[in-house]
Amino acid sequence: MNKEELRGLIETGEGYTLDFKEGIPSDLGRHICAFANASGGRIILGVRDDGSACGYKLSNADEAKINTTARNLEPSVRVSVERVGDFAVIHIPEGENKPHSSAGQFYLRIGSTSQQLKRDEIRGFFQRERLVRFDEKPNMEFDFGHDFYRLKFKDYLAKAGITPLKDEADTLRNLDLLDGGHMKNAGVLLFTHRIAKFFMGATVVCALYEGTDKHQIIDMKEFNADILSNFENALEYIRSKLNTNFIIKMERTNRLELPKEALREALINAIVHRDYFSNGHVQIDIYLDRVDISNPGGLVSGLTRKDFGKRSMPRNPLLMDLFLRIDRVEKVGSGIGRMRKAMAEYGLKAKFDISEGWFSVVFPRQAQISTPQATPQATPQAGLTALELKIFGEIKNDTKISRKALSEKLKLSQDTVKEYLERLRAKNAIRRVGKTSSGHWEILRK
């Protein structure tokens, strides 16, 4: 590794396969053990947690200490140490005889942290879960020339605060998305145009029902772009179908009938932690009395119902790391707690239905609040959802903007933009004047 490659690696930031240390930590065994029990990784010595460089001059005694620590793991792990300028890099391979322990304790790399697990938890994880994780498998059918959505990749790097390297492959490699010359499934899920081309079950299906059962369907939508777009579009779909309550406290405010934070966490959980080996898809069912978000894959092996909401062992650790980098997932293992807290603030309680093959979250819907004091004053844009307002605003700024341009600017699929343009026209907010190629939008609301 040369200095330029090291710089690019540091700019990528800590993650599932990369850790920063100012010097040799007293609990080095913990971190080597965690990487060995996961997919391997690298520890860079001479970098602070915030990514700033402080440098570290590695001595021969330090190198001997690192190798001794790795040999003392049970079973032992063979590591390599590389000096790069004023830094040192410890290369840790994925363990061949998992699970490994350090000083009698078991650790696993989860997100950008090394977490301690009970012996039974980690043994169960490796005994019953597939040793080859879906998100880390190289995808032989993915063609970089035809299937790689570079605009989406650039947008992801911007959100993650990562400066792209001159060689695109180096950036992908630093994110641990390449296996040889092949994109791993995690990268395919995030950076392809149409996900169903590779994984039929990786779509998100939303359905709106007339009553409290599936007898009468009012509306149905399937999202099959990349999983990040699917998440954003599905979340907007849920919001557009729920009521908005107007609350009088110190001043008039409005809020969705279910907490957005809870819906967001449930949907992220369904997409990131689902079993992608299953042919099932993420399903969102909106009934008159509840919203049900379900995904294939129950609790990860090694976790019990008692552990639910307290401990986290991701089924797709590389995919979760990619979502962590753009703040779509927050503190590891805290999603269920945030979901419960958000629901409690509404005076509601979500129900978690867990089976061997499926996981569901059921949100009870509350009746819309309607009082004379809470009735909102009419406004020119009353009745428009958040996404409709965004699209309406872009059209007001540029009445000649195309559907494609709206799609790229708002990071939405063209099908979604088309649907919401139709909604705006139905609400008499806009209308199209002239032919498609040379026409323009006319604003009907101020």
Quick summary:
By secondary structure, the protein is an alpha+beta fold.
Q: Would you give an account of this structure?
A:
- The chain is of the alpha+beta class and about 450 residues long.
- It has 15 helices and 19 strands.
- It has helices spanning about 5-10, 30-35, 60-70, 120-130, 145, 150-160, 170-175, 185-190, 225-240, 260-270, 315-325, 335-345, 385-395, 405-410, 415-425; strands at about 20, 40-45, 80-85, 85-90, 100, 105-110, 115, 180, 180-185, 205-210, 215-225, 245-250, 250-255, 280-285, 290-295, 350-355, 360-365, 430-435, 440-445.
- DSSP summary: helix tally: 15
Q: Judging from the principal axes of the Cα atoms, what is the shape?
A: globular
Number of domains: 4
CATH fold annotation of the largest domain:
Heat Shock Protein 90
Bin the strand percentage.
15-25%
Taking all Cα atoms into account, the compactness measure Rg is: 25 Å
Largest sheet properties: 6 strands, mixed
Q: How many beta-strand segments?
A: 19
- What CATH architecture of the largest domain would you give? 2-Layer Sandwich
Mean pLDDT figure: 85
Distance between the termini: 59 Å
> What percent of the residues sit in helical stretches (DSSP H or I)?
25-40%
Provide the fold topology.
Layout lengths: L2 H10 L5 E4 L6 H10 L3 E5 L14 H12 L8 E5 L2 E6 L8 E2 L2 E6 L2 E5 L1 H10 L15 H4 L2 H11 L7 H7 L3 E2 L2 E2 L1 H6 L13 E6 L7 E7 L3 H15 L2 E5 L3 E5 L3 H13 L9 E5 L3 E7 L20 H9 L9 H11 L5 E4 L3 E7 L21 H12 L5 H8 L3 H13 L3 E4 L6 E4 L3
Parallel strand pairs: 1-2, 10-14
Antiparallel strand pairs: 2-4, 3-4, 5-6, 6-7, 8-9, 10-11, 12-13, 14-15, 15-17, 16-17, 18-19
Helix pairs in contact: 9-10, 10-12, 13-15, 14-15
